[in-house]
Amino acid sequence: MRLEGYKHQAIESILGVSSGFIGKWKKVFFNCGVEGLKLAYKGSQGLLNAQQRASIIEWLKTNDKWNLSELEYEVASKYGVVFQSKQSYYELFDAARISWKKTQARNPKYDPDLVAQKKRNLPATGSATF
Asked: How far apart (Å, rounded) are the C-alpha atoms in residues 1 and 7?
């Protein structure tokens, strides 16, 4: 925008940035070109490498029942890794296509006899009285 002739004040209001921000990136552009404007952050290195992660996922797939504490123990005992956040373990479950929030096949509160009794006690006209 500076090369197009825009003044600092116009760029500040359009982009919502400070004059110092504009000056900094203008200097980077003139020193390094477009390459200097590219994002340099590459992310952090994971605690498990791809092979270790695949091994844990295969282990998860072979189990009949899953437990978060068992997964934590498996990762720690095999690879010496203890994640700071439970989210990392949940992501392993997700990668293995396992839901750690299991649904039930049947509502435990459902009682067919109680439902039938309530149906018998409903008014026959279909209008409820309060």
From this structure: 8
CB atoms within 10 A of CB 128: 7
Distance between CA atoms of residues 94 and 116, nearest Å: 41
- Could you tell me where the DSSP H helices lie in 16-123? 19-32, 34-37, 50-62, 68-79, 86-95, 112-120
Please report, for residues 22, 74, 77, 109, the alpha-carbon distance to residue 59 in angstroms, rounded to integers and kept in the order given: 52, 9, 13, 34
Give the Cβ contact number of residue 75 at 10 Å.
23
CA dihedral (69, 72, 78, 80) positive or negative: negative
- Name the 3-class secondary structure at 101: coil
Question: Is this prediction's pTM over 0.85?
Answer: no
Which tens digits make up the pLDDT trace of 8-49?
A: 889 888 988 898 888 888 888 888 888 887 777 666 667 888
